[in-house]
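in:
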């Protein structure tokens, strides 16, 4: 989505030290990366691994598409990375609480999103992520994602 400006007022120190950054929105329902199921044919020694959730593939594809659009042909961000993600989940009509303290688990949402970021070429490898700030809120389903490449993480932490 063009023209998107992330809310980062709470963390200006990351942007002051940033070498490169990208921010974008992903539309769609965030899906957790769950367990995989293994199947084998009778008489075969090969095992096929299959995602246990049908929702993961469309979410990863949405992240990949939005990430590719945001990168606009640039090389993947590499080096020490800081990632900020706000997952927006639909609020059920009968829910009274302000925060989504139920399924899906935040860590599993992150796993599926990192796979999409890597596939999109936004990040070279999710092993490069040194700082992660994630939030789960109610809103229009999707996610706000910011990836920042900082050359000196110690300078940012000081």
């Amino acid at each position: 989505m063009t023209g998107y400006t992330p809310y980062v007022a709470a963390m200006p120190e990351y942007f002051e030290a940033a070498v490169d950054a990208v921010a974008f929105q992903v539309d769609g329902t965030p899906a957790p990366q769950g367990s995989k199921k293994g199947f084998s044919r009778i008489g075969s020694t090969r095992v096929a691994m299959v995602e246990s959730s049908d929702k993961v593939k469309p979410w990863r594809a949405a992240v990949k598409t939005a990430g590719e659009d945001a990168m606009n042909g640039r090389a993947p961000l590499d080096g020490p990375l800081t990632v900020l993600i706000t997952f927006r989940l639909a609020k059920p009509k009968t829910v009274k609480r302000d925060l989504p303290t139920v399924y899906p688990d935040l860590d599993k949402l992150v796993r599926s999103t990192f796979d999409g970021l890597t596939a999109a070429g936004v990040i070279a490898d999710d092993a490069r992520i040194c700082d992660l700030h994630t939030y789960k809120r109610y809103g229009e389903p999707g996610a706000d994602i910011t990836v920042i490449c900082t050359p000196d993480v110690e300078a940012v932490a000081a």
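note: The first strand starts at residue 20 and ends at 27.
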